[in-house]
């Protein structure tokens, strides 16, 4: 199931995206009665997808991100894969949805795209054993871990470099029925392919990362885990259009603008 969060006529709801974009009715969203983090029903009220505004599929209490989880990306950053996963936070205020602008911060002159598979947590969990990792996952979405690279290099902590407003586009929806083991992950800028990798290249799997993170903290429904980016990261400029595609999920597209 593809679960979207959307607004229409000033109202916000969740819905299941259904249909065939090439079919006579196109894609529609069937409004969900309730929320996707508990038992819910489809209302049967279906709205054409092009009549709603897609929002970030979740509003997480926290985004836990993992750095250098692809060996080739670690190499292009001038290092090796660390023995222990590098984790950092992106605040909830960094989240934007499909079609929202990525606003380049005034304090940086070198901002990069980073295409990633994002894991959406479906239930409160702590100290999750590897064999139960799938049980705590609601589904998966596309993410762009937008990074002020010059600031990342100059400051020991990554809070400003990775956590500025609009630095975490998520979307277009949550796909609940996909195997994350070996999915293509790509990024294009103005239609030019920049990144092309597969989740099978990740040094640590989704289950490994859930085990590692939940050893330290409780994850709540709607929290997001970013799993790292393949090689090919690079600069984005005002006026660019960045598209992150994850196989079996969809494409997340955002325009880039310069902040005041």
UniProtKB/TrEMBL annotation:
InterPro entries per the UniProt record, alphabetical: Fumarylacetoacetase-like_C, Fumarylacetoacetase_C_sf, Rv2993c-like_N
The highest taxon in the source lineage is Bacteria
GO terms of molecular function:
hydrolase activity
Keywords on record: Hydrolase, Metal-binding
Q: What name goes with this protein?
A: Fumarylacetoacetate hydrolase family protein
User: Where is the Fumarylacetoacetase-like C-terminal domain positioned along the sequence?
Assistant: 62-257
* Residue ranges constituting the Rv2993c-like N-terminal domain according to the UniProt record: 1-57
- Organism (species): Streptomyces thermolineatus
Tagged with keyword Hydrolase:
yes
């Amino acid at each position: 199931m593809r679960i979207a969060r959307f607004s229409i006529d000033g109202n916000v709801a969740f819905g299941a995206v259904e249909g065939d974009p090439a079919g006579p009715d196109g894609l529609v969203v069937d409004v969900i009665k309730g929320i996707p983090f508990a038992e819910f029903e489809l209302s049967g009220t279906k709205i054409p997808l092009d009549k709603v505004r897609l929002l970030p599929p979740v509003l997480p209490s926290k985004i836990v991100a993992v750095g250098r989880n692809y060996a080739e990306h670690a190499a292009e950053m001038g290092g090796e894969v660390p023995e222990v996963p590098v984790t950092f936070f992106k605040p909830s205020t960094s989240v934007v949805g499909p079609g929202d602008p990525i606003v380049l911060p005034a304090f940086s002159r070198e901002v990069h795209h980073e295409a990633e598979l994002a894991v959406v947590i479906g239930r409160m969990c702590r100290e999750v054993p590897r064999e139960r990792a799938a049980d705590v996952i609601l589904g998966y979405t596309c993410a762009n871990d937008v990074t002020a690279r010059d600031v990342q290099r100059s400051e020991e902590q990554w809070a400003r470099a990775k956590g500025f407003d609009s630095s975490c586009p998520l979307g277009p929806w949550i796909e609940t029925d996909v195997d994350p083991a070996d999915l293509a992950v790509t990024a294009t800028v103005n239609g030019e392919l920049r990144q092309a990798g597969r989740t099978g290249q990740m040094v640590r799997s989704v289950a490994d990362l859930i085990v590692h993170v939940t050893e330290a903290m409780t994850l709540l429904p709607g929290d997001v885990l970013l799993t790292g980016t393949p090689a090919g990261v690079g600069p984005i400029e005002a006026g660019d259009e960045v598209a992150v595609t994850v196989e079996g999920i969809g494409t997340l597209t955002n325009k880039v603008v310069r902040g005041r």
